[in-house]
């Protein structure tokens, strides 16, 4: 089932130049996904979805007060993984396409195989597909910085909200009036309030790579700037 939702960009999701921040973008995409999920799943209980990977191409800036349309639908379901597409349109022109990868977990937090009832409800449609190969951490990063997790970063599941990882990244990335062209981000392990993570990062011209870690790697990202 394909759904399309209209949003007017609020200033509080934007940076000082009134450009939509990356974490603000993810908030909007997840909101559209949640609305579509509620429409499709109906009264199915005892399970919820967790994000594993984002792959996003951005073709134009989104500014405060812009009115956009977000289209989203299920692209593919493969045993334990569900792939969801997003397209953003501004004035009828496609300015973003994204593919994301989800896992289904039960109320005990165990990853489960996606069951036939859900597959039938969602259906599957062709669309924009992320690369099969996943971004890997570098052997060495040039810089490292501590991350302070705030109580406001924690969501209803008791973990750092997915969009807040982008806030941590945006705190160290050097945009210098550049904008994000491509984002490839993987969530390996949840961060909790008691964790004391670090962000290890390197930036070489228009390519920024990082890993957020404690004793384990929690998130890996590669960002291409333009």
Automatic annotation (TrEMBL):
Gene3D superfamilies xrefs: Hotdog Thioesterase (3.10.129.10)
Keyword tags: Fatty acid biosynthesis, Fatty acid metabolism, Hydrolase, Lipid biosynthesis, Lipid metabolism, Transit peptide
InterPro entries attached to this UniProt entry: Acyl-ACP_TE_C (IPR049427), Acyl-ACP_thioesterase_NHD (IPR002864), FATA/B (IPR045023), HotDog_dom_sf (IPR029069)
Limits of the Acyl-ACP thioesterase N-terminal hotdog domain: 4-122
Keyword rRNA-binding: no
Domain Acyl-ACP thioesterase-like C-terminal as annotated: residue spans: 142-207
Family per similarity comment: Belongs to the acyl-ACP thioesterase family.
Protein name: Acyl-ACP thioesterase
Originating species: Helcococcus kunzii ATCC 51366
């Amino acid at each position: 089932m394909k759904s399309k939702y209209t949003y007017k960009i609020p200033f509080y999701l934007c940076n000082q130049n009134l450009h939509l921040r990356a974490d603000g973008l993810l908030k909007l995409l997840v909101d559209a996904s949640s609305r579509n999920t509620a429409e499709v799943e109906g009264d199915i209980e005892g399970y919820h979805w967790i994000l594993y990977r984002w792959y996003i191409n951005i073709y134009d800036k989104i500014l405060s007060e812009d009115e956009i349309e977000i289209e989203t639908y299920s692209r593919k379901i493969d045993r334990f993984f569900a792939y969801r597409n997003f397209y953003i349109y501004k004035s009828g022109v496609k300015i973003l396409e994204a593919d994301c990868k989800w896992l289904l977990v039960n109320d005990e937090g165990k990853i489960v195989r996606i069951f036939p009832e859900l597959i039938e409800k969602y259906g599957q449609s062709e669309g924009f597909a992320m690369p099969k190969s996943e971004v890997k951490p570098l052997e060495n990063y040039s810089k490292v910085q501590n991350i302070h997790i705030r109580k406001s970063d924690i969501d209803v599941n008791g973990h750092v909200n997915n969009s807040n990882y982008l806030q941590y990244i945006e705190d160290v990335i050097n945009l210098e009036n550049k904008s994000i062209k491509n984002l490839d981000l993987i969530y390996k392990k949840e961060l909790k309030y008691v964790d004391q993570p670090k962000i290890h990062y390197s930036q070489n011209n228009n390519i920024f790579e990082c890993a957020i870690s404690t004793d384990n790697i929690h998130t890996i990202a590669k960002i291409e700037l333009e």
